[in-house]
Write a structure and sequence with these properties.
Two copies of one chain form a homodimer. By secondary structure, chain A is α+β, with helices and mostly antiparallel strands. In chain A, about 35% of the residues lie in helices and about 20% in strands. The first copy, chain A, has two domains: about 280 residues, Zn peptidases (Aminopeptidase, 3-Layer(aba) Sandwich), CATH 3.40.630; about 120 residues, Alpha-Beta Plaits. In chain A, the strands form five sheets. In chain A, strands 1-2-6-3-7-17 form a six-stranded mixed β-sheet, with helices on both faces. Chain A has a four-stranded antiparallel β-sheet with strand order 11-13-9-14, with helices on one face. In chain A, α5 runs parallel beside α14 and α13 packs across α15. The mean pLDDT of chain A is about 95. Chains A and B meet through β10, α7, α8, α10 and α11 of A and β10, α7, α8, α10 and α11 of B. β11 of chain A pairs antiparallel with β11 of chain B, so a sheet runs across the interface.
Chain lengths: ~475, ~475
């Protein structure tokens, strides 16, 4: 058997152990945005540090930040071989709406081919698949590359402290290549590599009218309803062509080249697939002049993520609410800057808000956009690993989500991270009943084994430690 | 001393007892719309039944309905005198937003001239003022009229069972006149009589898009955001002239006559008063072509009472919400019918909702409009009682709120109820820190004494028992 084959044979023989480890990690409700889960965050970090130590890692440390800590460790044993920095995040999104989960979000449950739990796909599954690959290699002859780890606890809240962490510990993270496991493929039988990510600018808009909730009969007609004002502000943020109306919003947006439109057009997901995955009666036309695949990955969008005003309990309460708050976020593309978008939103609100209310725009989180070179040795190594595992070549894609670490790794460490992960489009990440497709999880382990072996053979690596 | 003077002297000597009784009733959190307060509703009904018995009422009974019970009783001792049916409601609005109360909503607290508690003004204060007037008359020679009581527990949820109750027990409620204590005056030094009430049509609109909350990056641009759709639907419900755009909404609206506009123009509340009371930076122009007093009382309005969608906790969650729900209600004027408005809203949603979502319009509660004859003996008795107590003549007004019982009393018992109550415009009814202005509460007791004495002298009363 080849080196790869023996490691894969080990991984297959120990698949149940990998699943068991993943279930253990999923039972820790490491929700980074909710203060009441602080202890769970610490617990998850300690669990991962222990796991790194059990794999013979050294320099294992829980690096504290102003927010949640990052778990680090390394195994530098392969002389003259490249050093690969593995990135992942152990935090997850809140589980609400809780009543839509068919099984408890933090009690991982296998249903058919799927493991259901918050974080199963985003992204505890990928962390544990990568570590299973490392274990298989260690148990069958050793690592073909040197490895370093940075597993953060703040990806789901926009990685506010990762830039500072990478800067403060630059020596620790010096590497030849970075492997970002927070990624996905197109379908269980169709691999893909994400080479572009949208940025994020996330805001809260608050409209305040009367000093307190008023009786809607006694004041309706002379007091401007803050919920109505906020509805009007949000409604006018898109024009009839589906374009975003913030002043100057498209000014810096890089046009898509014909070559890039051709790459994006290879996206194998059909509109019918997206409709089925989302469960909508019909897809939205969105911005005119762009295909669905372009709109979802390569064009900027604006979404209402939440809206709260007045009485929302059962039955009726005839109030004219004192205030209305919406969470509104934009996905950005090159060369949009979140700070500039914040200015555009403030200007929009200033121009359109009536003097009958006061408005406040609060910046919640920002994340940069990133585009990676599709033609590097490590990108080719990832493509070969996927082709060998799935029997079909991967399709390159630009993804609609935002992973701030990608731009940070580019900026701080000078590496183009390889996005190699195994989330599926219908995994329900961020929503209820999030799942990990287990056959894909196992293929993920094999792909990571192949990728590390391919990376070990890359000539010209500088052997950065 | 005259009959009135002796009763008033008694009331003044026992003012503290009246306040104590009111505080007791306010401590019972009788919130009709919240199922968890069912036991409190029963407790409040029993408390009032005991109070009626202690005043020598007979036929005291808690009449159950499909919802909350109504408390009834009577004292038929004044031979050849008219019988006055007293209406009130013992239920209150929910206390939320709780964190905006400076004192606990169900622990009545005297601050300066005011008693702070949910229900202090709407309307446990008026019930207890009226009963204090009855006690003063009983203790100083007896009642000048016959009295019947109906104190319901469902006014704040639209009196859904009062029509049936009045029909089922018509003999019990037969009367010559009705006194509706659920009313207010303009200012502590300026009495008023409400002779018109707006109707109410209250709805929930739900917009459903994807089957579950989606990742806003992975689906933003191709899935129509239900919160955005609902914002667009609501935003377009008013045109640039502040008019409501539901198809046919104004078709049946009765025009204001010049005479009525002149009566409404006597409203002493200035725009500056309203701005101060509501705490808004500027009043809303609302429907073009109408004064503030007309818009607030005599023209129909549409309000968003609540809006909920997506993630509304602290921080960020990048979801594209599966659904958005708004509570939207209209205040109606003669001759609008809530059923017709429901049809107009359904038609509006049908015309404007895109096929990317599904929409549902749910009817929550409806209440009819009412206009009362300003020139009846009982209306004149009320005006005289107010003039004698306040030293200034009352101003007639049409009020923006909705009190379904008014139209029900007209329909079922054939009487035009006299609206005689003492809520003030800045009492904060339905909002946090609701208050009862105590000097006005005591003047209310005196006014009720005078009204009952005036009513006892009305000739031609049919003596309906």
């Amino acid at each position: 058997m080849t080196r790869v084959e023996t490691a894969i044979a080990f991984a297959r023989a120990h698949a149940k152990d990998a699943l068991k480890g993943l279930e253990e990690l999923l039972r820790i409700p490491s929700v980074s945005t909710l203060p009441e889960h602080k202890a769970d965050m610490d617990k998850a970090a300690e669990w991962l540090a222990a796991r790194l130590r059990s794999l013979g890692m050294t320099q294992v440390e829980i690096l504290s930040t102003k927010g949640h800590a990052a778990v680090c460790g390394e195994r530098i044993t392969a002389k003259d071989k490249p050093t690969v920095l593995v990135y992942g995040h152990y935090d997850v999104q809140p589980a609400d709406p809780l009543d839509e989960w068919r099984t408890p979000p933090f009690e991982p449950t296998v249903v058919g081919d799927n493991l259901i739990a918050r974080g199963a796909s985003d992204m505890k599954g990928q962390i544990m698949a990568q570590l299973a690959a490392v274990e298989a290699l260690l148990e069958t002859g050793g690592l073909p590359v040197n490895l370093k780890y940075v597993l953060e606890g703040e990806e789901e809240i926009g990685s506010p402290n990762m830039g500072g962490l990478l800067k403060a510990h630059q020596d620790r993270f010096t590497c030849d290549a970075a492997l970002n496991c927070d990624a996905g493929i197109h379908a269980p039988d169709l691999p893909g590599i994400v080479y572009g990510l949208r940025g994020l600018a996330y805001f809260e808009i608050e409209v305040r009218g009367p000093a307190t909730d008023l009786h809607s009969g006694l004041f309706g007609g002379i007091v401007h309803n803050p919920a109505q004002v906020l509805c009007e502000l949000i409604a006018a943020m898109h024009d009839s062509d589906g374009r975003i109306t913030l002043p100057g919003f498209y000014d810096s947006v890089e046009s898509l080249t014909d070559e890039e439109r051709a790459v994006i057009a290879q996206c194998p997901t059909s509109e019918a697939d997206w409709r089925r995955m989302s469960g909508v009666p019909a897809l939205w036309d969105g911005e005119k002049g762009y295909t669905a695949a372009e709109r979802i990955g390569a064009r900027p969008t604006l979404e209402v993520n939440g809206f709260l005003s007045g009485f929302t309990g059962q039955g009726s309460k005839t109030v004219l609410p004192a205030r209305a708050v919406a969470k509104v976020s934009m996905r950005l593309v090159p060369n949009q800057e979140a700070d500039a978008v914040a200015g555009q939103l403030r200007e929009y609100v200033k121009r359109h808000a009536p003097d009958t209310v006061t408005c406040e725009v609060r910046e919640v989180i920002h994340g940069p956009t990133a585009i990676m070179n599709r033609d590097t040795p490590y990108m080719r190594a990832a493509a070969k690993a996927l082709t060998d595992t799935f029997g079909v070549e991967p399709v390159f894609k630009r993804e609609g989500g935002s992973v701030p670490i990608v731009a940070l790794l580019q900026q701080e460490l000078g590496v183009d991270p390889v996005m190699l992960g195994f989330a599926l489009p219908d995994d329900g990440v961020h929503g209820p009943n999030e799942k990990q497709h287990l056959p894909t999880f196992y293929k993920g382990i094999e792909t990571y084994i192949r990728f590390l072996c391919e990376a070990g053979g890359i000539a010209g690596a500088r052997g950065k430690r």
